[in-house]
Design brief:
This protein is of the alpha/beta class. It has 14 helices and ten strands. The chain has two domains: about 200 residues, Alpha-Beta Barrel (TIM Barrel), CATH 3.20.20; about 80 residues, no CATH class. Helix 7 links the parallel strand 6 and strand 7. The structure holds flavin mononucleotide.
């Protein structure tokens, strides 16, 4: 399939694997890229720019296809060494960066000078327009369904994607709630040029996370996610567990007085315990409603090939058949 996204990133299929903390290591990114999609390493999971350099080198050993690095601009007190991470990306000759969180404007000139294509992930039309106006090459439009941070507007993709199509000139991919060929074909119909998937790619053979995480996703339904940290204006969609229930009780009892320190036990530093050790109640971890559509743990190649072949059948048979009036 050829779209403006496959052309922009020089990839075979319009399928991107979004950056994911403690999930998107070289193993997953290279597997997605080898399958013809775009794999992305999560920059900040690497503790230092030197660690990121090594992770990029590991990924290069596993694939000769294009892959990217995610840079998440966090609302943290002590800012990570973003210039250092960008130097590691440039030194590693990575030509695609997925930015997320805050406005990446301050770092765009240095990335553009290095010939890097930037896809900014955002959750509203106004932020997507801003990304376009500051020179991003593409955007990932992340709907309310998404795992991770859906923002505070709560607009689902059925509205958000066509609204983005009305306003944007640069290409965009649909993110949040994407799992299969139906997601891809629907997204293309709504104006997107491809899809970005997070949760779906965790439940794959190559995702280097504990088996418990993959099983939790397969077992979950679309009813099993919760929104946390809304009172802190840092809303995150996570899979419900004991820690999440405890956190939500604190949110409702403390109300407006809630501070980050009150929920630190449930959210700070929990990812290694969950993703590496499989301690599923150790804290809150991002997961999309799309878990309800995930029923197996295929390889990335099987998953991507299945999406592409079923998408072709959907378009050629189901959709074309509906307008064939003879
Ligand atoms: C476990 C997990 C960790 C994530 N970590 C990050 C991250 O560090 N940076 C980021 O930009 N997005 C992160 N995301 C969001 C994904 O890149 C992607 O935008 C999102 O998962 C799309 O929604 P979906 O899960 O419905 O596919 C994370 C998502 C999950 C599920």
């Amino acid at each position: 399939m050829k779209t403006r996204i496959t052309e922009l990133f020089n990839i075979q299929h319009p399928i991107i694997q979004g950056g994911m903390h403690y999930v998107a290591f070289a193993e997953l990114a290279s597997a997605v890229s080898n399958a013809g999609g775009l794999g992305i390493i999560t920059g900040l999971t690497q503790k230092t720019p030197e660690d990121l350099s090594q992770e990029i080198a590991r990924c290069r050993e596993m694939t000769d296809k294009p892959f990217g690095v995610n840079l998440t601009f966090l609302p943290t007190v002590t800012s990570p060494d973003y210039p250092g991470y960008i130097k590691a990306i440039i030194k590693g000759n990575v030509k695609i960066v997925e930015t997320a969180g805050r406005n990446p404007q301050a770092y765009l000139p240095v990335m553009k000078d290095a010939g890097i294509k930037v896809i900014h992930k955002c959750t509203s039309v106004r932020h997507a327009q801003k990304a376009e106006s500051i020179g991003c090459d593409a955007v990932s439009v992340d709907g309310f369904e998404c795992g991770g941070h859906p923002g505070e507007d709560d607009i689902p993709n059925m509205i958000l994607l066509p609204r983005a199509a009305e306003e944007l000139k640069i290409p965009f991919v649909a993110s949040g709630g994407m799992a299969d060929a139906r997601s891809l074909v629907a997204s293309l119909a709504l104006g997107a040029e491809g899809i970005n998937m997070g949760t779906r790619f965790i439940a794959t053979k190559e995702a280097p996370v504990h088996e418990n995480v993959k099983q939790a996703i397969v077992s979950a339904t679309e009813l099993d996610t919760r929104l946390i940290m809304r009172p802190l204006q840092n809303t995150e969609r996570v899979l419900r567990n004991i820690a999440v229930d405890r956190l939500l009780e604190k949110e409702s009892s403390l109300g407006k007085d809630l501070k980050f320190e009150d929920i630190i036990e449930e959210v700070a530093g929990v990812y290694p315990k969950i993703m590496m050790e499989g301690a599923m109640d150790a804290g809150a971890w991002s997961c999309g409603m799309v878990a309800g559509l995930i029923h197996d743990i295929p390889t990335c190649e099987t998953l991507i090939n299945r999406i592409m072949s079923e998408a072709e059948m959907l378009i050629r048979n189901r959709l074309a058949g509906m307008i064939n009036l003879n």
